[in-house]
Design brief:
The chain is mostly helical and 575 residues long. α31 runs antiparallel to α32. The longest helix has 15 residues.
Length: 575
């Protein structure tokens, strides 16, 4: 390590002198050590000795700066290079992409392509990952065809991932099917894309083909993906059977990664008993749980609503000396929030302070959410106020707004929203759902309309059915039924919750005409739900129409009337 950290000065005092092949591995070591000073020192010597003109040395320097996230230095080196080759171009493009500068990477690619400089499959594999939409991706795919590398397995696999990321799963499927040779990475990329685009059932078919005549054996990544697909389509029994079958086939080659995949997959499919059994078997198989293993157990229990189990495994992890990851801590906080376990949440907060991670944005948002759900807005406010410079993440602000609303402290929620706008933080759809819900429950009709209209006008956010539902509920509660019905007309296929909201408002305002219409709509959407009849009978009773109320109650109790209730309700309405 000592030699690697100070590789250079000692070399200058010895012979033979360094040559051009000395610098690329030296710069690679500097990048691996995450050491900008050493890289800059080598850079200075390259300039001093004239080795900067060597394309291999200057390319290695560019790559080192990119890996150190010093993109400006890397681009300056690239611009000053007297000679460039394909490797130096690929280093710049891949480096820009690695640092999140997708547009700049694509601009470099275009300038190189237009300038007539040759590119190869390595260039295209990098560029595919930087495409922000299908149109860009198709352009890159055309380039691959033009230079004759479209059948290269790495290029094709990257194209599959690109189309999937852009939501063009049909194009991804076409590229995948046309691949002359497929490998494990190709299958995993295609399966990942299918899962991301909601085609979980197709995943199972692809997996069967892979095992049948694809000639490829699944690995732990495949295992997790297939288990996730089984969970999405509720094939839990099949998923468990399949997982254990594949897991058995991996006997002798199982690693901790494989075990972690199985445990995570079981938790993903709500098979927590199986996950516990696998976890307890780890040590007898010669493995010790790592942070990934513990996190799978903790986050799995948390997502399944088993807060006490999540907290128990967190304590067990801590007792074994494994440092909890940030994800583990936030998962436990989520469990504490969902079960209103304030004391556990405070213990986790104390751990975060002792380990100096309490200022993390994601963790702080989880802390605010936990304190709000445990009925402690003042403590949530302390976490919020601890940020002297407020973050521009909408989720952070939403936790405060939603929390105040949940605790009935709307007078504090709206100023938080105003502060959010003052700080130039862009609200999102969730922000407005919280605000509109508060307006609805507080009877703030004018304020609700103002907030609803500003969504699209000021922030370009199109209201979705949830936003419409909040507004319809608000208007119904305030007795503005005409306006509520107008909003309902703007929705294509309103959900049952919208009609239920209006029916509830009709009960409050004894509106039998609209109430009957809403009951008809609800009975059509949910023929097995007797609640509309119960509410309708209450409205009739409130108006002194006891016979109609009794008929409605009988309809509620009659199984046959639940299947075709519309005619009977209409008959009542005409009385």
């Amino acid at each position: 390590m000592g030699y690697t950290q100070k590789p250079y000065p000692s070399m200058l005092n010895t012979t033979p002198l360094p040559h051009k092949f000395t610098f690329p591995p030296l710069l690679k070591a500097c990048a691996n050590l995450r050491s900008p000073p050493h890289t800059q020192m080598v850079h200075a010597h390259l300039l001093k000795t004239g080795f900067f003109s060597d394309v291999y040395s200057s390319t290695a320097l560019t790559d080192s700066y990119m890996k150190l996230n010093l993109t400006d230095h890397a681009l300056q080196v690239f611009e000053e290079m007297p000679h460039r080759n394909l490797a130096s171009i690929n280093a710049v493009i891949s480096g820009l992409l690695r640092n999140g500068h997708c547009r700049e990477a694509l601009a470099v690619f275009r300038s190189v392509w237009v300038g007539g400089f040759g590119i190869n499959s390595v260039t295209l594999v990098s560029v595919f990952s930087g495409c922000e939409n299908a149109k860009q991706g198709m352009g890159m795919h055309c380039v691959a065809v033009k230079i004759g590398v479209e059948d290269d397995i790495f290029v094709s696999t990257s194209a599959v991932s690109m189309y999937s990321s852009c939501g063009e799963v049909e194009y991804a499927a076409k590229v995948f099917e046309d691949m002359p040779v497929k490998n494990l990475e190709s299958y995993n990329a295609f399966i990942t894309g299918l899962l991301r685009n909601g085609a979980a059932r197709v995943v199972l078919d692809v997996f069967k083909k892979m095992r049948g005549y694809g000639g490829e054996y699944p690995n732990a990544v495949t295992l997790v993906l297939v288990l996730a697909a089984c969970g999405s389509v509720l094939c839990l029994g099949f998923g468990r059977q399949l997982a254990y079958q594949v897991f058995g086939e991996l006997d002798g080659t199982r690693s901790l990664f494989t075990w972690n995949a199985m445990i995570a997959g079981m938790m993903m499919n709500a098979q927590w008993e199986s996950a516990v059994k696998l976890f307890e078997r780890l040590e007898s198989e010669g493995f010790k749980p790592d942070s990934v293993t513990w996190n799978s157990m903790i986050s799995g229990f948390s997502q399944l609503g088993k807060g006490s189990e999540a907290f128990e495994y967190f304590k067990r992890m801590h007792s074994t000396g494994v440092a909890p990851s940030l994800k583990s801590v936030t998962s436990v906080l989520q469990a504490c929030a969902d079960s209103s376990a304030l004391q556990c949440g405070r213990e986790i907060h104390g751990h975060a302070i002792r380990t100096d991670i309490s200022s993390d944005l994601f963790l702080s948002t989880a802390l605010i959410d936990m304190y709000m759900k445990c009925g402690q807005p003042p403590w949530a406010r302390r976490v919020f106020d601890s940020f002297h410079v407020k973050p521009d993440d909408a989720a952070f602000w939403n936790a405060m707004i939603t929390g105040y609303g949940r605790n009935g402290e709307n007078e504090y929620a709206f100023p938080i929203f105003d502060h959010m706008l003052e700080e130039k933080v862009q609200p999102n759809a969730a922000t407005f759902i919280s605000l509109l819900s508060m307006c609805s429950h507080s009877g703030l009709g004018h304020k609700g309309w103002k907030i609803f209209r500003m969504m699209d006008r000021d922030f370009g956010i199109k209201p979705d059915p949830k936003h419409y539902g909040c507004m319809i509920d608000l208007l119904g509660r305030s007795g503005r039924f005409d306006a509520a019905l107008e909003l309902t007309q703007e929705l294509s296929g309103p959900s049952a919750s919208v009609f239920a909201s209006l029916l509830g408002a009709c009960e409050c305002h004894s509106n039998i005409d609209l109430g009957t219409q809403m009951a008809i709509k609800l009975s059509e959407l949910e023929p097995e739900n007797p609640i509309p009849f119960l509410i309708l009978s209450k409205i009739f009773a409130g108006l002194g129409r006891w016979k109609d109320a009794e008929i409605s109650r009988k309809m509620m109790d009659n199984q046959k009337s639940r299947k075709v209730p519309g005619f009977s309700i209409l008959r009542l309405h005409t009385k």
